[in-house]
């Protein structure tokens, strides 16, 4: 199962949900405007992110600019309070499971949520299409 946190129902959120569900991945959605994050949840997201606040905070957001956040020196408590007051400072959507986190919708990055066994099967199918198959007359067809 994958968790998807969002604050607006924008195209990237909808694309992410469609992409995940079309691959049989169960998605648990949460609107952060209606159910804000707790300090513990902010800590969990930061622990999953490779680049800390850079992965989570949208620096182009009007809300982020209005709050004048110093993302390099902000404490976890200050960040949690800012997200609770204005969830739109987060990138949208925030997608994660127990070990991985992706923000926004990027097809290449989303592949980390597909189980390894399924990825190998898809790769095998792709390679089979690319492998030349000999014909009875000796010709090779791609």
Descriptive report:
The chain is an alpha+beta fold and 142 residues long. 43% of the residues lie in helices and 14% in strands. The strands form 2 sheets. Strands 2-1-3-4 form a 4-stranded mixed β-sheet, with helices on one face. A two-stranded antiparallel ribbon has the order 5-6.
SSE diagram, text form:
Layout: E1 2-6, H1 11-22, E2 27-31, H2 39-48, H3 53-56, H4 62-67, H5 76-85, E3 94-96, E4 101-103, H6 107-110, H7 116-130, E5 133-134, E6 140-141
Parallel strand pairs: 1-2
Antiparallel strand pairs: 1-3, 3-4, 5-6
Instruction: Output the number of helix runs.
Output: 7
* Percent in helix: 40-55%
| Principal-axis shape | elongated
Q: Helices and strands, in N-to-C order?
A: EHEHHHHEEHHEE
Mean pLDDT: 88
Uncertain parts: none
Q: N-to-C terminal Cα separation, in Å?
A: 38 Å
Query: Mind telling me the C-alpha Rg?
Result: 20 Å
Number of strands: 6
Strand order of the largest sheet: 2-1-3-4
Helix-and-strand structural type: alpha+beta
**Major β-sheet, in short?**
4 strands, mixed
- The fraction of residues in strands falls at 5-15%
What tags apply to this protein structure?
43% helix, 142 residues, Transcriptional regulator Spx, alpha+beta, single chain, Arsenate_reductase-like, two-stranded antiparallel sheet, Thioredoxin-like_sf, four-stranded mixed β-sheet, 6 strands
């Amino acid at each position: 199962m994958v968790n998807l946190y969002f604050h607006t129902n924008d195209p990237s959120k909808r694309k992410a949900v469609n992409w995940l569900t079309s691959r049989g991945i169960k998605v648990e959605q949460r609107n952060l405007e209606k159910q804000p994050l707790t300090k513990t949840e902010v800590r969990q997201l930061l622990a999953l992110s490779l680049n800390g606040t850079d992965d989570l905070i949208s620096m182009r957001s009007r809300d982020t600019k209005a709050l004048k956040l110093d993302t390099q020196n902000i404490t976890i408590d200050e960040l949690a309070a800012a997200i609770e007051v204005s969830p739109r400072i987060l990138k949208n959507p925030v997608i994660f499971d127990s070990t991985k986190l992706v923000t926004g919708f990027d097809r290449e990055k989303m592949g980390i949520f597909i189980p390894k066994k399924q990825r190998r099967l898809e790769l095998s199918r792709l390679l089979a299409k690319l492998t030349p198959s000999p014909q009875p007359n000796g010709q090779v067809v791609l």
